[in-house]
Amino acid sequence: MTTPHPTPHTPTTTTPIRVLIADDHAIFRQGLATIISHDSEMQVIAQAENGEQAIALFREHQPDVTLMDLRMPEVEGVAAIGAIRAIAKSARIIVLTTYDSDEDIYQGLQAGAKGYLLKEAEPDELLNAIRTIHRGQKYIPPDVGAKLVQRLSNPALSERELEVLRSLAKGMSNADIAAALSIGEGTVKSHVNRILNKLDVGDRTQAVIVAVKRGIVSL
């Protein structure tokens, strides 16, 4: 009786997924790099500590997937995403952030990100998201998707209304806002009324509270 010879193992020659990490916290960047490097199918090719570096390193390395924080010095995440997409329309970018307000989610995805993941996610979810985005698919967890739907169902504020809302968040009066924006007080009142209607609130204080919760303005 002849013993069959074992089939020789053919080593995989799959090219690793090349990942760029952009985050202004060095310890967090290194943690991500460690998690990703433990996966044989992935490779961290560069790390950026601000948005400006992220854009430059993307141009230099042309990574397969970019992990992008939203709040960074020099150039913030949303602007960096837009700049990278201008370099390469097919860029695959995942927002990786602590911010889950509906406005942050909307802005990140509108800028061209293909995925949105919170920093509290488990390592396996991060790796799965990278693979999913690399395949050309989107990665939006259910809770993030629900907030995005809520954002899309809300009437959008105009640029002028956003300016007025930011002024309200600073505690400015109608007269102060009118002087700062070089418009009449009556115009300011009209903008405030439209803001209250769009945010579905009854007064200026509630408008600011809702705006902060949604990530439209920051205090």
What does this structure look like?
- With 219 residues, the chain is an alpha/beta fold.
- Strands 2-1-3-4-5 form a five-stranded parallel beta sheet, sandwiched between helices.
- It has ten helices and five strands.
- The chain is elongated.
Termini distance?
81 Å
Percent strand: 5-15%
**Sheet having the most strands:** 5 strands, parallel
Regions with little confidence, pLDDT below 50 for 5+ residues = 1-12
**Mean pLDDT, as a whole number?**
89
* Total of helices: 10
Oligomer: single chain
Structural class: alpha/beta
Tell how many strands the DSSP assignment holds: 5
Helix content: 40-55%
* Outline type: elongated
Biggest sheet strand line-up: 2-1-3-4-5
* Helix and strand run: EHEHEHEHEHHHHHH
Radius of gyration: 22 Å
Compact description:
This protein is α/β, with parallel strands linked by helices. The chain has helices at 26-37, 51-61, 77-87, 102-111, 123-134, 142-153, 159-169, 174-181, 185-199, 204-214, and strands at residues 17-22, 42-48, 65-68, 93-97, 115-118. The protein has a five-stranded parallel beta sheet, with helices on both faces.
Annotate the secondary structure layout.
Layout: E1 17-22, H1 26-37, E2 42-48, H2 51-61, E3 65-68, H3 77-87, E4 93-97, H4 102-111, E5 115-118, H5 123-134, H6 142-153, H7 159-169, H8 174-181, H9 185-199, H10 204-214
Parallel strand pairs: 1-2, 1-3, 3-4, 4-5
Helix pairs in contact: 2-3, 4-6, 7-9, 7-10, 8-9, 9-10
Can you give keywords for this protein?
219 residues, alpha/beta, 5 strands, 52% helix, disordered N terminus
